[in-house]
Design goal:
Oligomer: single chain
Distance between the termini: 13 Å
Structural class: mainly alpha
Radius of gyration: 19 Å
Largest sheet: none
């Protein structure tokens, strides 16, 4: 791995703000981002990445590469919860195994946004259709996770699979990014130029503040996570690394552009801590959010944005 690439990533202001948030919690500081402000920034980031993706998609020609990226994304979203469930159920209850498997099969929009910033720093580009791939990868893992739980337990009651799919697709983050993607696709260049200062120029600043808030949230969940032992830690580190490296290598057979391959790899390595918790709260209330939330947010997310991204890009550049 290129150590200069790793060093550059570790001095990225967005990442340093994340670490500042973790440090603030450890020092018992009263530093906090107001909840309403945090929610607004989340909405802004999803809106911005969706709209910009739609604009880029409007200039793209539907071709075999787009079909390949969608196919690999959907395959990944189904395969990851299937194989991880059988690893997890040896150490966790069926409910927790299914919920964690769903979280790691689904994707993190914030990781996607941070990865886009990382590529921009290195002058790499990725196509707008990757936003659509990300959105399509949210729901399948949730459905697979719930089906596995139903199959391996005696309980057959609860929300129907159709309602779970509907809830997954109408989840606020998924709906916003899909809606913004469509609006960006429909808007012409002159119309898009009118809001460009908002969607482009402010993006990195808002991302830094949001990652500060994520750092605070991660720091607060570390103690709860530590109580669950070594296996949860090892899973949170090695499974994303395996998934990301596998897709970084495999994507060469589906997608040509290095930036698009990188985004597929980071999506495979990421874990959902927004859509999955919301869906599991309704579909599988017996699953413990004190497990899958800290695993995804406090361990996998910082690992991906510090170590994972340079590793995946190194694999892609060498193949």
């Amino acid at each position: 791995m290129d150590l200069h690439l790793l060093a550059d990533n570790l001095t990225n202001p967005a990442l340093l703000f994340f670490l500042l948030g973790v440090l603030a919690v450890q020092l018992k500081s009263d530093l906090r981002i107001p909840q309403n402000s945090s929610k607004f920034i989340s909405i802004y980031l999803l809106f911005s990445i969706g709209f910009k993706g739609g604009q880029e998609l409007s200039h793209s020609t539907f071709n075999a590469e787009i079909m390949g990226a969608v196919a690999l994304g959907l395959l990944t979203a189904v395969a990851i919860p299937l194989y991880t469930f059988f690893i997890l159920k040896r150490n966790f209850s069926i409910y927790d195994a299914g919920a964690i498997a769903a979280a790691y099969g689904s994707v993190s929009a914030v990781t996607f946004v941070t990865a886009g910033s990382f590529l921009e720093m290195l002058d790499y580009q990725f196509n707008g259709y990757m936003v659509a791939v990300m959105a399509l990868m949210e729901a399948p893992a949730i459905v697979v996770g719930v089906i596995l739980i139903r199959f391996f337990t005696t309980e057959r009651e609860g929300p129907k699979i159709g309602s779970i799919i509907k809830h997954s697709l109408t989840n606020g983050s998924v709906l916003l990014i899909l809606g913004s993607l469509c609006i960006g696709y429909l808007a012409n260049e002159e119309q898009a130029q009118g809001i460009k200062p908002f969607t482009n120029d402010l993006f990195k600043g808002f991302l830094a503040v949001f990652l500060l808030d994520m750092g605070i949230s991660s720091g607060e969940k570390l103690n709860d996570f530590i109580k669950h032992g070594k296996f949860a830690l090892l899973f949170s580190l090695f499974i994303p690394l395996i998934n990301g490296c596998a897709v970084a290598w495999l994507s060469d057979y589906f997608v040509a552009e290095a930036g698009n391959r990188f985004m597929l790899a980071i999506l495979a390595a990421s874990a959902s801590y927004i859509a999955v918790p919301a869906a599991m709260k309704i579909a599988v209330p017996k699953a413990n959010p004190g497990l899958f939330l800290p695993m995804a947010l406090a361990v996998t997310f910082p690992f991906n944005i510090t170590i994972g991204m340079p590793v995946f890009l190194t694999i892609i550049e060498s193949t």
